[in-house]
Write a structure and sequence with these properties.
The protein contains three helices and six strands; from the N terminus they run H-H-E-E-H-E-E-E-E. It has 147 residues and is an alpha+beta fold. It has a single domain, classed as Roll (Nuclear Transport Factor 2, Chain: A), CATH 3.10.450.50.
Length: 147
């Protein structure tokens, strides 16, 4: 009986650990789809990563004035338009551009992530959907990154 209880405990713990790993993989994939969507102009990847109610904004520091400009907003539709422009203007990310995803925390329904991209650093909030997928709900960013 003790062996059976121990076995059930080990199996239960393994399943919980695998579920957490699965969430980690899904969050990472959503963030990589976000980066690759912008880098490659891939609207399908952006649609798989972004909530239709996306709230994204950031600040860009001018190389000339060394000052940050006004807040730059972007909606879900704006992200898709950006991807279209990448393709139509042949303005793809340079080879070797950073694509770093650092998960800061994952809970049952929410996750926070730091992403480093060619334009700068993004901090993201993701939400787990009813189907188990993760979507990026909010992003705040600044750029460019310091060299």
């Amino acid at each position: 009986m003790k062996k059976l209880i121990l076995l059930l405990f080990v199996v239960s713990f393994s399943l919980q650990t695998n579920a957490q790993k699965s969430d980690k993989e899904l969050v990472t994939q959503a963030c990589m789809n976000y980066l690759e969507g912008f880098y490659q102009g891939d609207k399908a990847k952006l649609k798989s990563a972004l909530s239709p109610t996306l709230h994204k904004f950031g600040y860009w520091k001018s190389q000339k004035t060394k000052k940050y400009g006004k807040k730059i907003p972007m909606t879900f539709e704006g992200a898709l338009k950006f991807a279209e422009n990448v393709v139509s203007k042949n303005n793809y990310a340079k080879k070797g551009s950073p694509k770093k995803v650092a998960i800061l925390d994952i809970m049952d329904k929410i996750a926070t992530v730091k992403v480093t991209a060619y334009w700068g650093t993004d901090y993201m909030f993701l939400a787990k959907q009813d189907d188990g997928s993760w979507l990026i709900e909010q992003v705040i960013w600044q750029g460019p990154n310091k060299k």
